[in-house]
Amino acid sequence: MVGYGIQSMLKDGHKHLSGLDEAVLKNIGAGRELSAITRTSLGPNGMNKMVINHLDKLFITNDAATIVNELDVQHPAAKLLVLAARAQQEEIGDGANLTISFAGELLEKAEELIRMGLHPSEIIIGYTKAINKTLEILDDLVEKGSENMDVRNKEEVVLRMKSAVASKQFGQEDVLCPLVADACIQVCPQNPANFNVDNVRVAKLVGGGLHNSSVVRGMVLKNDAVGSIKKVEKVKVAVFAGGVDTSATETKGTVLIHSAEQLENYAKTEEAKVEELIKSVADSGAKVIVSGAAVGDMALHFCERYKLMVLKVSSKFELRRFCRTTGAIALLKLSRPNVDELGYADSVSVEEIGGARVTVVKNEEGGNSVATVVLRGSTDSILDDLERAVDDGVNTYKSMCRDSRIIPGAAATEIELAKRLKEFSLKETGMQVGSVCHCKIW
After folding, report:
1. Principal place where this protein is found (predicted)?
2. Which residues, 6+ apart, have CB-to-CB distance to 115 below 8 Å?
3. Torsion sign (Cα): 223, 227, 229, 232
4. Distances from the Cα of 271 to the Cαs of 206, 244, 296, in angstroms?
């Protein structure tokens, strides 16, 4: 039987909700439910959540951005809050929990006003008035002299970073903050506004404790060098994204060999070709070869003969960062690189950190471009949570570089905003007064 009206337009299994009770209040309810999940994780004393994602991977964290990303949220209204949390995380790097919790609170207050008879558009106008007033008040609450902060002063940086790091790792901020501050100051460009959070890397090594963590001026690759050469200094670097091996022919063919002599000559031809390629790389001035894929045994043999250090970097993202650190251009296949395609490193060495062999690439000529925080911990879960705390610290530093103004913490600013918004709402007239009054920080 053919349906009529809206039923004829939508496919089978559809849901059509309309009116205040069905649509608006159910959407508000979904937002409040999501807010209730993350709210208990807010602040230094917030509780951790155990989340198992669709791949059955276990997360134990109080980081709201991780929680909402790993939860498979289906409700469209709740998804809007998830998108808001992601936008906050991408832009500021912290405060995702406050975004969701505050949004849930505003929705709860809006529900009361809707039940009183206000239209959603009137509530939105009232909330917008409150936002504009809040921004005005915030300018008055800024600490005097905080706009002249020196972002290269470690003591000041640590002082401002502590609250953000403590919200993730309460009690560990005294150990973590100096590490993060060191790493950030090392890679801070001449114009601090151009600070790039991607230049502070994290290497997680299981074993030891947080007190064993350190900062390395350069890039740390969590693998050993492929050959026997483990340390070189002031070298040129060639990067091959396609690997260091004999390249397969574009067309398939059959070779008919009649004698042992022909077989021996065929093998020698391939060997000579590989040697020619490796020799051409060595003649270009490169002392380090970085491979983005497999390193063939024959190619490695000739690299050893020509005293070339060989590194294998499987991740394309790590390879890209390596190129940025050294200034190299990644070549698709093994061939002689031009002078402008070679990178430079002050030193490339294999070091042992807590039983794990890692390769450290340092490049401080013209300003060190990458610093790495080497984190130590007993389990992968602890290391993941420590990484999130470091990420918050680095993003706090980025915010300082953009705008160093600060306001009082420990909810003092929020209480003052609530008080002044209440006073402001009493002076307003019209239907939106209730929503301005409700838009105070709970």
Report:
1. cytoplasm
2. none
3. negative
4. 41, 14, 12
Residues 363 and 238 in one domain: yes
Q: What is the pLDDT of residues 151-173, one digit of tens each?
A: 888 888 888 888 888 888 888 88
Do residues 219 and 361 make contact, with C-beta atoms less than 8 angstroms apart? yes
Edge-to-edge strand list for the sheet holding 309-312: 219-221, 356-362, 343-353, 231-240, 286-291, 309-312
> What would you measure as the largest C-alpha separation in the chain, in angstroms?
102
Phi, psi of 312 (to 5 degrees): -115, 125
Say if 210 falls within a structural domain: no
Q: Is residue 142 helix, strand or coil?
A: coil
DSSP-assigned letter for residue 373: E
At what angle are helices 154-166 and 173-187 packed, to 10 degrees?
A: 130
Handedness of CA 134, 135, 140, 144 (dihedral sign): positive
Residue with tokens 């209040």: 25
Report the distance separating Cα 373 and Cα 383, nearest Å: 12
Q: Does one domain contain both 361 and 416?
A: no
Contact between 103 and 34 under an 8 Å Cβ cutoff? The reply is no
Domain count, the chain: 2
Residue 325, number of CB atoms within 10 A of its CB: 22
Contact predicate 85/100, CB 8 Å: yes
pLDDT above 80: residue 384: yes
Tokens representing 265 are 């000559």
Angle between helices 412-427 and 120-141 (to 10 degrees): 130
Residue type, 410: A
CATH of the domain at 249: 3.50.7.10
In a 10 Å sphere around its CB, with 0-12 CB exposed, 13-18 middle and 19+ buried, how is residue 17 labelled? exposed
Structural domain that includes position 414:
15-143+408-438
Name the pTM for this structure. 0.74
What is residue 211's DSSP assignment?
A: G
pLDDT in tens, 249-286: 555 677 787 777 777 776 667 777 777 888 888 888 88
313: in domain? yes
58 and 139 share a domain?
Answer: yes
Total residue count of the chain as it appears in this document: 442
